[in-house]
Amino acid sequence: MPKTASTAHVRVDIRRNDTVKVITGRDKGKQGRVLRVFPADAKVLVEHVMIVKKHVRPNPQRNIQGGIAEQESPIAISNVQLLCGSCGPVRVGHERRGDRKVRVCKKCGTTLEK
Ligand SMILES: [Zn+2]
What angle do CA 87, 92, 96 make, to 5 degrees? Predict the structure, then answer.
C-alpha cells in the first residue's frame, strides 16, 4: 500500500514525557509535559495545553458529579518545540553516539535525551 502524501514525510522528534513549548496558536508561550504522541495525525497531547471544557452530566450510580470538567486536547506538532535545558525552545537535530541515534539541540549541540 502506498503511503499517503500527508504522512510520508512526517518525522516526529517529540516523545512522551518531553517538555515542549507552544510556539503558536491560542496557547502560545505555555509549556508542559508531553502526555501522548499521535504520529499518524502529527499531533501531541501536552499537559495543561489546549484545555477544553466538557460539560458532564451527573451520574450518581457511578459517583460522577455534574458540572464542567477540563481536559487537554491534541495540538499539532508543528505548533510546539522541544525545550533545550540551556537554550529554550529549539530545533532538533540528530547525531550518532556509538550505536545509538540521539536527538540534539541545534543551537548548543547538547543531547536532548534524558
Ligand atoms: Zn541548547
Answer: 115
Q: How many CA atoms lie within 13 A of 92 on its CB side?
A: 20
Q: pLDDT tens digits for 57-104?
A: 999 999 888 999 999 999 999 999 999 999 999 999 999 989 999 999
Rounded Cα distance, 61 and 82, in Å: 43
How far are the Cα atoms of 42, 92, 113 from residue 32, in angstroms, in the given order?
A: 17, 17, 17
- Which protein residues have a CB closer than 5 Å to ligand 1 (ion)? 84, 86-87, 105, 107-108
Give the residue among 80, 5, 85, 1 at the shortest CA–CA distance from 48.
80
> What average pLDDT does this structure show over 14-42?
96
Distance from the alpha carbon of residue 76 to the mean position of ligand 1, in angstroms? 23
56: its cell numbers: 458532564
